[in-house]
Amino acid sequence: MTQLAATSPSILPPAFFARHALVVARQLLGKYLVIPREDEQLALRIQETEAYIGAHDLACHGRFGVTPRTAVLFGPPGHWYVYFTYGMYWMLNTVTGRDGTASGVLIRGAGPHSGPGRLTRALAIDSRFNGQPIAATTGMWIEDRGEPVRRSRIRRTPRIGVDYAGHWKEKPYRFLLDDDCLGRRAAMHSRVK
DNA sequence: GCAGTGATCATA
DNA sequence: ATGATCACTGCC
């Protein structure tokens, strides 16, 4: 099993997130969500994201201004924004862009987990991460493991579950990575080399 | 197609 | 205090 990485894993710094949400959403594809688990740490390849680009984006939580819930989203980039919805599910987001703007990226799928509610349920992610830095000291971070993502592997669609957002519901702000040899596809076909 | 589930926010 | 809404999921 060759584990020879071209570059050593690097933890994404705050500067990574201090860019437009659309850039961050695209760039997060193929990165690894990492969480310590018992003796080992879990690293899941991010394969689906959505960008929410500011208070003017009628799909974005920030559209009603700063509230107790959205304060984190309006805050500095490089922090987790984790909120509870539908009485059951935690949504995992990164805060992006400039401090004072409501922009973020929802992580909708990583590793074998598809769907933002299933992802957080599987990883036991909840409010304890809300407002925390995206850093190793927090206990949940994102790594670049040096795997390039080909442009042709990326699909864009409108965002899910934002029918209330007027014309913003049609914006292609959802990003999906079609895995080639990693993850679900390989597992599903379970081919022998 | 639609029920479940409860925090959040506006309104009062 | 009340009521509508909701960046979802699972079952019909």
Output mean pLDDT: 91
**How big a fraction of the residues is strand?**
25-35%
Structural class: alpha+beta
Shape: globular
What's the story with the biggest beta sheet? 10 strands, antiparallel
Task: Give the topology string: H per helix, E per strand.
Answer: EHHEEHEEEEHEEEH
Task: Identify low-pLDDT runs.
Answer: 181-193
Q: How many beta strands in the DSSP annotation?
A: 10
Distance between the termini: 12 Å
What's the total helix number?
5
If you compute it from the alpha carbons, what radius of gyration comes out, rounded to the nearest whole angstrom?
Answer: 16 Å
* Proportion of residues in helical segments: 10-25%
Please, could you describe this protein's structure?
The chain has helices at about 15, 20-30, 70-75, 115-125, 185-190, and strands at about 10, 30-35, 40-50, 80-85, 90-95, 105-110, 115, 140-145, 155, 175. It is an alpha+beta fold and about 190 residues long. The protein binds a DNA duplex (12 and 12 nucleotides) through β4, β5 and α4.
